[in-house]
Automatic annotation (TrEMBL):
Chain ranges of the RecX first three-helical domain: 8-46
Function: Modulates RecA activity.
Main location: cytoplasm
Domain annotation RecX second three-helical: ranges: 54-94
HAMAP family the record matches: RecX (MF_01114)
Phylogenetic classification of the source organism: Bacteria, Pseudomonadati, Spirochaetota, Spirochaetia, Brevinematales
UniProt similarity note: Belongs to the RecX family.
Gene that this sequence comes from: recX
Protein name (Swiss-Prot/TrEMBL): Regulatory protein RecX
Length: 150
């Protein structure tokens, strides 16, 4: 292995050891470090042979974490995973393996974020920023308010 390839491999492995990454994220990192595309391809093939990438597991963890901590909609999470370079079929598989209750996710988000007296427009905007369409956001807002008054 020539010195340049060795340095690229070391950079990629350090990057992967910090946290799981997709092939695309590693490719972008090596590209930012000014390695040429042929060398980057060689490094990615080598890393794949050594099983450094498990994009299904990464996608599953990402979905669970984003639902739990950010209250994002599946469409917003799907968009994030696409940006990370994960294939659509891998995203679909990961989503099918994750169990979640969307209403529970939204209500938990609202319980954490909404202070008494917040106006409905602000709450709707919050849900829409998290990827929920207006109609669904309104439906969940009404359900959450009803739950609060029980």
């Amino acid at each position: 292995m020539d010195d340049n390839k060795h340095k690229a491999m070391q950079l990629a492995i350090r990057y992967l050891k910090y946290k799981p990454r997709t092939r695309e994220e590693v490719r972008k990192r090596l590209s930012r470090a000014k390695y040429d595309m042929d060398l980057i391809s060689e490094v990615l093939i080598e890393l794949e042979k050594e099983n450094w990438f498990d994009e299904l597991s990464l996608a599953r963890q990402w979905i669970e974490e984003r639902l739990r901590t950010r209250g994002l909609s599946l469409s917003a999470i799907r968009q994030e995973l696409r940006r990370k370079g994960i294939l659509e079929e891998v995203i679909d598989m990961a989503i099918s393996e994750v169990s979640y209750d969307e209403q529970e996710v939204v209500f938990s988000l609202l319980d954490k974020k909404v202070k008494p007296g917040k106006d409905e427009k602000w709450i709707l905007a919050l849900l829409m920023r998290r990827g929920y369409p207006y109609e669904k956001a309104l439906f969940y807002l009404r359900g959450w308010k009803q739950k609060e008054h029980e």
